Predict the structure.
Amino acid sequence: MPKKIFMVSLGCPKNLVDSELMLGSLTKSGYEVCESPEEAAVIVVNTCGFIKSAVEEAIDEILALSSLKENQPSLTLVVTGCLVQRYGDELKESLPEVDLFIGTDGFVDLPIRLLELEKGVPVKIDLAKTPSFLMDSSQNRQVSTPSHRAYLKISEGCSNNCSYCLIPSLRGRQRSRSLDDLIVEAGELEKLGVKELTLVGQDVTAYGVDFGKKGARLTDLLAGLLDNTSIPWLRMLYLYPNRISEALLELMAMNPRLLPYFDIPLQHASDRILSSMNRPYRQKDIVDLLKRIRTVMPQAAIRSTFIVGFPGEKEEDVAQLENFLAEYRLDNVGVFAYSNEDGCAAAAFPDHCPEEIKEERRQRIMALQKDISWQHNKNRIGRLEKVIVEGVSPETDLLLEGRTYYQAPEIDGCVYINSGTFNPGDIVELQITEAHPYDLVGEVVD
């Protein structure tokens, strides 16, 4: 009888792909995935350890699941991912309930490590000093997203060295997968029924930079995906501002399968703060980029994230951010209070903001953006929009739910569908009839 395994995947879509690789290697080795932790013989928690809130979420999840050992002493608890890579031996001491820790390398060898545990081999922690893992299409992957959409992880690591970010130390430097291998995987995902493929990496626009001058770049990869698959929606997340080239914009403008959706983490609009963050652009560069995008693709949706409360941030810096958002009116925005993380350069900067000031600024910016997003949505009332159907809404089984090209899965809002009968993955044309700050309502037009 196969052993049952329960997986918890925390953090970003990139982490989810790692979880899917673990599930693939485990099921290939004879394990069976179950729906509840109470059924499992093995529980795996794949963690994020990027910022304090993610660390706290991971620890809470681990402790909650470890309590199951009281009634099931034979239960094996495994913790993997960025939290382990960041804290290593500290976790081994503070969480004796955990049977095995694996960092950001070695997780695809989990079945071997579990077998070693059964045999009594002491492998409490598996931690690479310099992360070097890079997935490829030959590895088993059990896709856990709905069958009509999936993520394509095109690279690993990051070489940008922003002053507030731990990713290079947790994931290593930029490593791109080969273009041919990515096309193979995209083809396999298309065979599974994927209609929306989202390219992810720590910096998607840096794809191929590590190959050297003659290597493939992001535009080559996109052209290859267009030529070798028929997937109707191709989306990109995590576009670094100063690497969005004219060639990329032109390719997107010419190919409707490349969704005109730009997820660009700008982080701030004050030159002084951007410099302190070690971001290689200034507000003028951001404005020039937005104008270029909107000139080439007037229908483009632009999403960004910003950090408030960065060390040294003053009210005039926040005012610059408010003025920028009010003038350039991005479609979707996420705002985060700066999280001070040991090991980052910014941790040693002077003039840290009190937590209450960070939160006040975050709420203020979010309130401003809520009004902007709502106005964008009001302007969409009456439009015909293509919507990919997700299925029955979690809010009520009386409505279906879907997304337009300007709504990325698990990130942005949705469209509630109040007429018609569709299947998940159908791409249908709806008329927008109602607007809310982040969501829309649409119906079939006769």
